Amino acid sequence: MVDNIFEDSSVNSSLINTSSVNSGLINISSYKSSSSKNSYIKEELTPERKLVYLVKSIAKYQAAHNSPKLLEIAKNMYNDSKKDNFSPIMKRTYEKQVIKLLKNLSKQKYADAEYYLGKIYQEKGNYKKASKYFEFSYQNKHPMGTFELGQCYEHGYGKPKDYKIAETLYRKAAMVGYCQPAMIHLGMSYLYGSLRNKNIKEAVHWLEKATATLSENVDRDLIAKACYELYKIYALGGPNGDGSIPQDFEEALIYLKMSAENGSTEAMMEISAEMDCLDAQIKLATWYLCDHSEVVQQDKATGFYWLKQAALPKNLTTDSEKRNQGCIQFILGTYYETGIENVQSPDENEALYWFVVSAKLGITEAIEKIKEKQVEHNYEDSSISDFISVVMDKGLYGKPSESSLECQQIINDLPNRSHHSIQI
Prior knowledge:
The protein contains 19 helices and no strands. It has three domains: 1-149, no CATH class; 178-273, no CATH class; 310-421, no CATH class. Mean pLDDT is 80; it is low at 1-39 and 397-424. By secondary structure, the protein is an all-alpha fold.
């Protein structure tokens, strides 16, 4: 929430990254020098000479009551105070001058100045003062100041925690000021219940509203995340496919494409996976099955789906790709063997099928699994192909594998050797 404090659209929702409150310095792109009268100041001047020039400029614009120009000077000075070629003394001097200038503008109820003061104090970790100036900017109808005040109430930064007040402030910022970070934060909050008020239809409403119009300065990362959430909702028919929203694959693909266009790694990976790219399918399976919350919310059903897609036959050309797929097929077999709570019941026939497929690609662990199954079901004196044929015809428990027909070709290719000398 403190990066790029002088670019309103870049303030990230803490729902997406709550740790950002304390992270880093303000990152404002450097200002280009110009010989025009409106230029901030020539870059070749030393910090000391710049300061003399700036003090004169401030006096000039104060006399002219030119608040926008004074605010521009304050922003540029704060940016300068972070430069490496400034001594600690000059950094403090510039910063003090910026705060003094912004406070004077705040006395005139200049909402932008109040908001930027709040961001500066937020960066310093002085949340009490930060919330004070965010409240001033809210009173003067500043959308981002209103949003940041909501953050203070949601997380208890300089204000008592109060989710109701936070929600009200976010809605005001979204409705009155068309504040996209507030809209997206509202959408995510309703989607995941972070404000203790889960509402899927409200979530979709705010996420769609935020992505409907993309301004030039909008935070592309936030838009990408919002579009990706909408893609999942429409593709599955609500979160985790709960049916709360009608499935709409056409709408889902629109949002998937928008998410990728705005830089979403997950969306790009999903598009590649849909095009049957093995690496992308493996990556998605790993993200969703394992704890990779920095990328996506864990979702074992989605992860299991991509694991199965990665295991299906493909036109692979390199030994490395084939071995990677063999490992995936073995992993899929172990998931069928043990089951996944609320996703997949144990299915020993399916497990054996994928162990066989994996063994054909030379995965030692899969071969050992087949040996274990032979012993476990009293077929240790049979050849491996005879054992598998019996299983596929009758099933270990009287029910053939759903994949038995696909497996038949593999069975036919197996050499007729006993389990004591398996070479697949």
